[in-house]
């Protein structure tokens, strides 16, 4: 049996790797309309939040809070939305999205609003570098 972590194919197709947190693989959603990160706990066969151990739930909460703080700071976000839906992709994952009064979906949820806008290569590289540096620093000093 291979216990290596497996990322759901849809998440792999829609995201780029930012970094690894204490528990989760942290991914940038390929939608330039929103600074949008997805945290995926690196344990196979997780579907729901209650599939995590109590310690893992605490760690995921810490990762979400740090990610939220970083999105607010880097992008001057008005607020962040944190959500675990999993209706389309069954692998447990948590969305952390920076929101702004002038974004495409404000004040409603982002799902089902318009079409994703791809990053240019330069935009993606710049955003990934900034997020990677901030997250690595936050997790190192925690």
Give structural notes:
The protein is of the alpha+beta class. It has one domain (9-140): HIT-like (HIT family, subunit A), CATH 3.30.428. Helices cover 34% and strands 20% of the residues. Strands 1-2-3-5-4 form a five-stranded antiparallel β-sheet. Strand 1 and strand 2 form a beta hairpin. This is Diadenosine tetraphosphate hydrolase. Residues 37-106 form the HIT domain.
Structural class: alpha+beta
Radius of gyration over C-alpha positions, nearest whole angstrom: 15 Å
Q: Please report the first level of CATH classification, the CATH class.
A: Alpha Beta
How many helices? 3
Proportion of residues in β-strands? 15-25%
Largest sheet, strands/sense/barrel: 5 strands, antiparallel
Instruction: Estimate percent helicity.
Output: 25-40%
- Gross morphology is globular
| Cα distance spanning the termini | 34 Å
Would you list the SSEs in sequence order as H and E?
HEEEHEEH
Write a concise synopsis of the structure shown.
The protein contains 3 helices and 5 strands, in the order αβββαββα. It is α+β, with helices and mostly antiparallel strands.
